[in-house]
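The passage that follows is intended for readers who have already worked through the single-chain material. We present the inputs for a multi-component assembly, then the predicted structure in tokenized form, and finally a short commentary. You are encouraged to pause after the input and sketch how you expect the pieces to fit together before reading on.
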Amino acid sequence: MTGPPRPADPPRPPDPPRPAPAGPPPKERIPTMAKSPPNSRPNTTPDSTPDTATTFSDTAATTASTALTHIAALVTNDPSLGDGSPIGLIQDAAVVIEGDRVVWVGESSKAPPTDNALDLGGRAVVPGFVDSHSHLVFAGDRTAEFNARMSGRAYTAGGIRTTVAATRAASDADLTANVARYVAEALRQGTTTQETKSGYGLTVEDEARALRIASDHTDEVTYLGAHIVPPDHADDPAAYVALVTGDMLDACAPYARWIDVFCETGAFDGDQARAILLAGRAKGLHPRIHANQLSHGPGVQLAVELDAASADHCTHLTDADVDALAHSDTVATLLPGAEFSTRAPWPDARRLLDAGATVALSTDCNPGSSFTSSMPFCMALAVRDMRMTPDEAIWSATAGGARALRRTDIGRLTPGARADLTVLDAPSHVHLAYRPGVPLVSSVWRGGVRLLGNGVRL
Ligand SMILES: [Zn+2]
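Having made your guess, compare it with the prediction:
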């Protein structure tokens, strides 16, 4: 592989502890659809054993050990394993899970004895995808906007403002149902960690509501009160920044881990973005930035200056921006669904990788500019149109996303990692780009629990 990512960096220490939030503590959440009885599988079962009639079965993790065997190709993301490449590919592999953790990986023939075994029949296994950038708390529909754009017509309705109006008008129950639906949709496509943001409320109450609902579905919650200046503050953006850094931040911080800002002409300039992110940091939120999406701007340099976990989009970069990213812990998160859905120029992944920057891939799932929840689709775009290799794409969609969330427990399949893994109805992870648009996900495990198994044989 040329221009490999940098998987061998030592794990960074966890973020410093935040002040105790006033709201509920983060906790692991699992889709609550169709609970099945506790796992009663026999000791050895094929992966094609159907789960309950619906897609999800919420079997409890146990301390019994389970070996997943006959894995044609296992992506570990540990270069000390397997073929020694950055993705640490092991052929004819096995994974042993105990409780919610991976406790052993290696060649199938060397697997230790376990309480249970599951024959994966020559499928490939990859770490569960880490989607580190999405906007799932919304209501309304922007089909007409997309249709107009793809038909070459100007669309003059409100864009983000359309979604803001619909989201403010929606009930808690409707917003909750939408988030649950899209988290489940992503899970069916192999995503086991989902970051999501506010940003379509833009009032104190609506932003706090969005984050409270998001926090019921994921631990990776981002406060994006600074998405745009809403129409009700159009005449006084400074007053809106004061709100975002004041009462709105106070109401939102208990539900969020991250703070984000759309740093772009027409949204928030560099000085405003710095003030917003520093205010969030003072409340224990860590920065990430929508940076350099539509034009060159100060977003990337600000991200590096503030040690943001991620600079997201990175479509328009100067040489100085690329150099700054390459010499920082800030991940360049590329979101090709946005360029696909707006017919915009692709971000230059090859340039970033060759310079030594850490690159993540994510969906940017939102109803306006990138309405896909599919990490495999984004990987296929990255390989086909952004000149990433298939190995780089799988690394960026798993380990890269984990870096962008400053997590060391996910994005890899090595002893001690959380047992989040996606089983493919394919013999290699390369099929994720080689067979674009094909539903290759066979089963998904999160925290040692099998959440999805579709019963499809190779
Ligand atoms: Zn976004």
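Commentary: The mean pLDDT is 87. The chain has two domains: 44-128+411-453, 130-404. How closely did your sketch match?
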